[in-house]
Structures are given as structure tokens and as C-alpha cells.
Amino acid sequence: MAPKGRFASIFGPFRLIWLSIEIFYDTAKEAIRRDGLAALGHPRRIQDVAVAKLLSKTSDGFIAYEDTTTVPSLVKTAEGKILELGPGPGNQIHRYDQSLVEFIYAIEPNPNFKDDIAAKVKNHDLQDRYKLISCGVEGSDILRREGITEGSVDTVLSIQVLCAVEDVRMVMREVWKLLRPGGKFVFWEHGRSKDAVTAVTQACWNPAWSTLVGCHMNRDILTDILAAGEWENPGDVERPDDPHSCLPRTWGVLIKKA
């Protein structure tokens, strides 16, 4: 008989997918009620609203889970001029060590998180040192207007974000360019399992998960991170063996080679 952990890993994602289906259904109904059938011509807009509702609704649960992991200590290492990728509803805002923060630029292409983030920034008195920018890391013209240029950033923070971007390799190349020599890429991500059975499970769930939850289960994210450029300490990356998890994590604080 397979261990209990195996069954939990196979069927565990269904709970969040089902919640996503309910939220997508309600969001589509609201859009049709407001804009008529023309709303169905903008599926990406409906998806962005639904994903934002999902992540906002589950924010407290994600924060509680991350509190049991290395995430709080990772975020506290961010310092200087910080670029946070995909803050979503702002789950990391309370974790920064404000004595180390010069300024935080949070880049988020989904515009539906702005109210959540504004409230958390105000609660933690970061109004003068936090700016939400509606773009992805590939929006170089927008970033340049904010003074974010090649070699200008001290820390890039990525907590469960690379699973959701369109092109991990391209994003990581941009991240590496923006970091100054000696700058830090701080990350906690999930990717493809090394366990064969779990990898098959990920492949089966991924179409629904990527559409409804908004991220991919089975990307080889660590390979793309390490291939972005020269790092001083690639051996410091942590990738514990977690064969039953459909979301096996990897993390580290990589230093851009001077």
C-alpha cells in the first residue's frame, strides 16, 4: 500500500482548484452582469480578477504556512534598494527588516492587488519607502523611469513568483542584469519533483492548476535561476528531498558575481 503522504500529494491540489472554480464562476457572472456577453471576449481580465480574489482570500493561510518555513528569515535578508517580484496581496510586507530597507519597488502586472497592498503598506508605515509598479520585470521602460536600471538593485526578492511568470529564463536574465555586482537574489520557489510518481501527478494537475490558480507546478525553475548569470555561491541553494509534495520548494540567497 502506498504511504499516506502519497495519497495526500495526489489529491491535495484539488482543494485549491475547487475553490478557484467557485471564484472564477462568481467572477465571470459579475463581469457578464456588468458588461454583458462582451465580458467573455476578455478572458484574461476575468482570470486576473479571479486569481487576485483567490490569493487575497487565501492570503492568511499562505502567510501562516510560510511562517513554518524559512521564508521569514529569507525576507529579512533583503536590504538596500529592493525589487520585489510579484508581491500579490503583499504577504511579505510585514517580514522586511525595516532597518535594512532603503526602498522597495514591488512590480506586479496584475492590477487587482493594489488595495490589499496599500492597506498593508500603511499598517507597517512603509508609505515613504514602498512603491507598487504595474508591470513585469520585462517592462524596462517603466522601470527605467523609476531609476531601476542595469546594476542598480541591491536585492531582488522572489517568493513563489517564478512559477507564474510567462518565461522564467527571460525573467531571470533581467533579474541578473538589474542586480549590482555583489547584489542578492533571495528566493523561495517550487518546481518539478524529482520523484517519478509525483512528477506524473504534477503533469496531470498542471493544466487545471495553471489556469485556475495562476502558476505552473512542474517547471525546472532552479535550472533557469542558476543559468541566468554567474553566481558566487550556487552550492548554497537548498533543495531538500520532498518526494510526496506536488509543490517541492527550493530556496537560497544567491550573490551576483562581481
TrEMBL record:
Ranges where the Methyltransferase type domain occurs = 83-187
Q: Offer an example of a GO molecular function term for this protein.
A: S-adenosylmethionine-dependent methyltransferase activity
Q: Which InterPro entries match?
A: Methyltransf_11, SAM-dependent_MTases_sf, Thiol_S-MT
Q: Which Pfam families match?
A: Methyltransf_11
Name of the protein:
Methyltransferase type 11 domain-containing protein
